[in-house]
Automatic annotation (TrEMBL), chains A, B:
<dbReference type="InterPro" id="IPR000524">
    <property type="entry name" value="Tscrpt_reg_HTH_GntR"/>
</dbReference>
<dbReference type="Pfam" id="PF07702">
    <property type="entry name" value="UTRA"/>
</dbReference>
<dbReference type="InterPro" id="IPR036390">
    <property type="entry name" value="WH_DNA-bd_sf"/>
</dbReference>
<protein>
    <submittedName>
        <fullName>GntR family transcriptional regulator</fullName>
    </submittedName>
</protein>
<keyword id="KW-0805">Transcription regulation</keyword>
<keyword id="KW-0804">Transcription</keyword>
<keyword id="KW-0238">DNA-binding</keyword>
<dbReference type="InterPro" id="IPR050679">
    <property type="entry name" value="Bact_HTH_transcr_reg"/>
</dbReference>
<dbReference type="InterPro" id="IPR036388">
    <property type="entry name" value="WH-like_DNA-bd_sf"/>
</dbReference>
<dbReference type="Pfam" id="PF00392">
    <property type="entry name" value="GntR"/>
</dbReference>
<dbReference type="InterPro" id="IPR028978">
    <property type="entry name" value="Chorismate_lyase_/UTRA_dom_sf"/>
</dbReference>
<feature type="domain" description="HTH gntR-type">
    <location>
        <begin position="14"/>
        <end position="82"/>
    </location>
</feature>
<dbReference type="InterPro" id="IPR011663">
    <property type="entry name" value="UTRA"/>
</dbReference>
Amino acid sequence: MPEIAVTIDRASPVPLYHQLAEQLTAAIDSGRLKPGDPFENELALADRLELSRPTVRRAIAELVGRGLLVRRRGVGTTVASQVIHRRDELTSLYDDMVRKGQKPRTTVVSLDTDVVDAVASEALGLPADTPLVSLVRLRSVDDVPAALMHNWLPPQFADLTEGDLADASLYAVLRSRGAHPVIAHQTIGARRPTARERKLLGLAAGDPLLTMSRRAYSAKGEAVEYGDHCYRYDQYAFDVTVHDR
Amino acid sequence: MPEIAVTIDRASPVPLYHQLAEQLTAAIDSGRLKPGDPFENELALADRLELSRPTVRRAIAELVGRGLLVRRRGVGTTVASQVIHRRDELTSLYDDMVRKGQKPRTTVVSLDTDVVDAVASEALGLPADTPLVSLVRLRSVDDVPAALMHNWLPPQFADLTEGDLADASLYAVLRSRGAHPVIAHQTIGARRPTARERKLLGLAAGDPLLTMSRRAYSAKGEAVEYGDHCYRYDQYAFDVTVHDR
DNA sequence: CTCTTGCAAATGTCCTAACAAATGTTGACA
DNA sequence: TGTCAACATTTGTTAGGACATTTGCAAGAG
């Protein structure tokens, strides 16, 4: 049983259990702890690091929740197998491209306030005649158009300018103004493009469109954003990891 | 602030925190606690039920994790809005249709053993020349073709017959034979259909295709299934709920 | 040699206790 | 009247202990 080197900084504002969890995660991700390895038991770990058992347990629970560790009563804790090492998450080809170093460019096609849209209002849980902010952006990668994104925001964002959206992502802007989307419901589908979409995205005749509509909510349950996005089928795909209880 | 009636049975083998969590969940689901309602604070709840604060906290944490409650330091805990009441999950229009009482019909188009497919083998983590089971099914709803599903299974399922697949779902069959998929990685995209797909799904010229490929793994990390599915864009869509941490 | 019992080790549950940090409110003071 | 500091409230973190439950293994009984 390998002893993982862990340094705890009690002066840090980061909770001890989280510091521990982070370093244990790193130990597994880096391969210092391999799948199947027995994990140092709670008591020994608490003793060695001079932490209380609840604190150690909480850190371990965090990793168990993410599927990195498996606990069995009476037996011990072991490092889980590799493929399970991902939590439910949804990423897109776009995220992957950014990670790979390609730099997407986003241009604002239109930004209007006081737009009335019954569907969007309904999605945002607002009266149908609420004046909304309508934002249309085009995203390109290496000068190839990849996505056409139409977003609707509640009226408190009526003072947004194109400049605000030049550099930052929409979510970063929303967050900086106190709107924190914490949950989103997305629907992914496909359809034929409209003539306008075909033109903006540079699609050939018969090319399909990948679509995603999203409703994002704050922790308080207030709708923060409604979006209707179209993607070039050859530029985008969605990756989803699903757990089965 | 409504006092929720809770009865705790200390003689039960069910942990106290779980008993409490269950009853609080029921209170919310049944509507006795409505979204936005302030939630009895931890200390009061612990006092009233004669439980320790950690126990109460653990129960509340369970509901917070499921998105039923929202905690804010210095403010209190409130019942989350209705829309948040769902955990990360991925459903499809198909599931919705079943739930609404429509009954889809699945027919086996082909079932072959000893099929060699490099892509599928790679996805299953097997040598490229492994003889796989290739299964193609067509799913219809009200006699309208909706999905064409191509699945590859590892060789231990070579004795599967069409009869096995007549009534049960593929996952039910896999499970009954000891293969328990617990995690799956899915990729959702769109593309133009091939001539064969167009014919089988009854697509018009220019109709797009919604696609989903899936790799499913057992708890031990062994690949259980690889699937390549095509859906009619007007019959299917994927709903995904994403949390942001 | 096999089965059972008992023990040790590990995680699971539950408690008391204290202090820290964030938030909204209230009241004093300019 | 307006502003800011102190305070009460509530959740967040950490500690330390006691006992329960499960599991694997080894020693002893048959």
